[in-house]
Amino acid sequence: MRDMTANIVGFSSAVALLVDGVPTLRGQGFGDSLLSAQSVEVLRGPQSTLYGRNAQAGVISVVTRQPGDAPYALLSAEGGSRRRAVLRADASRALKPGRAYLGVAGEFMRQDGFIRNLHTGRREDGRQQYNGRLTLRLQGRSRRGKCPAG
C-alpha cells in the first residue's frame, strides 16, 4: 500500500492503522508485530470520511483475538541471521466463565546490527524490542425474561 512507510519523526501517515479500533498515529507503531491478530481488513483508497484525516490512502484494520471460555496458550520461538532471536507467548482463560476473561500476550526480539563501526570494530544498529498486551474482558448479566416494571 502506498505511503505505508511513515517517517519516524513525522506525526502521521496517509494510511491509517487501527488495532481493535484504536488508531496508531505515529510511524513507530507500524513496525510492531501484531500479537494475536485474528483478522486484518484492508480498505483501499480515501477513507477520510469514516476514519479521519490520516486515511487519505486507505485503512488497515486489525482485530485481535479476544479471550473466551476455552483456555488458550501459544508459545513460539524463531531465530535468524545476525543472531536474531524472537520469543512470543499468548495465553488466555476465563476467570469466571460467561462473565470475566483474562488474556496476556508478549514478545521479545533481539538482533545484532549490520553496520560495522570502522573506528571501534563493533557492529552498530542492533535492535531489542519488547511488546506486550493485557486484555480484561467483562460481560454484563443478561436480563432476559425479567419485566422492567417489576
Topology (SSEs and partners):
Elements: E1 15-19, E2 22-24, E3 37-44, H1 48-51, E4 58-64, E5 72-80, E6 84-96, E7 100-111, E8 115-116, E9 123-124, E10 127-138
Parallel strand pairs: 1-4
Antiparallel strand pairs: 1-2, 3-4, 5-6, 6-7, 7-10, 8-9
Describe this structure in words.
The chain has one helix and ten strands. The protein has two domains: 15-64, no CATH class; 72-138, no CATH class. A hairpin with a 3-residue loop joins β6 and β7. The mean pLDDT is 85. The strands form three sheets. The protein has a four-stranded mixed β-sheet, with no helix packed on it. It is mainly β.
**Alpha carbon gap, first and last residue:** 57 Å
The amount of beta strand, in percent, is over 45%
The beta-strand count equals 10
Number of helices: 1
How many separate domains?
2
Roughly how much helix do the residues carry, as a percent range? under 10%
Quick overview:
With 150 residues, this protein is mainly beta. Helices cover 3% and strands 49% of the residues.
Annotation keywords:
single chain; 150 residues; mainly beta; 2 domains; four-stranded mixed beta sheet; 1 helix; flat
